Description:
It is a single chain. The chain is an alpha+beta fold. It has two domains: 4-38, no CATH class; 40-179, Nucleoside Triphosphate Pyrophosphohydrolase, CATH 3.90.79. The chain contains four helices and ten strands, in the order βββββββαββαβαα. The strands form three sheets. It has a four-stranded mixed beta sheet with strand order 7-4-9-8, with helices on both faces. The protein is globular and about 55 Å long.
Amino acid sequence: xxxxxxxxxxxxxxxxxxxxxxxxxxxxxxxxxxxxxxxxxxxxxxxxxxxxxxxxxxxxxxxxxxxxxxxxxxxxxxxxxxxxxxxxxxxxxxxxxxxxxxxxxxxxxxxxxxxxxxxxxxxxxxxxxxxxxxxxxxxxxxxxxxxxxxxxxxxxxxxxxxxxxxxxxxxxxxxxxxxxx
Length: 181
């Protein structure tokens, strides 16, 4: 038993996504339509110093009309740029850091009920300061901040928390414990 995608009907396009009506056939032959957002995907890096300090940012998000605590992240919007290159670019752009080592932590399906967006998560180690190069209006007003990894593991914001940040913190903590850091 399986579902079969019959096709997509494009409805509108944006910079990093496309709205589509996906036509699907269920195992019993029933056909139905779902509104979806086809997305280019994103990368995110949790930069952690040897002492456990995590370099984060607060960035304005129009969708919530407020600043959210996040890790450096961004779209996979440059042709032929691989995942690690995109992660390194975002780390430098947003918080002015370069990592000697990027460890792949996993890939998240951000909101599978309506989008195919995935975010590839990395842990950045061996950090060096470089000049930040903000790209875009929101990035011009990023507030950089630090937090201990242990504190981040307990972080909670009653107005909502970036789930990729919390997941990356837990995955990074597990990795660093296994490695003995």
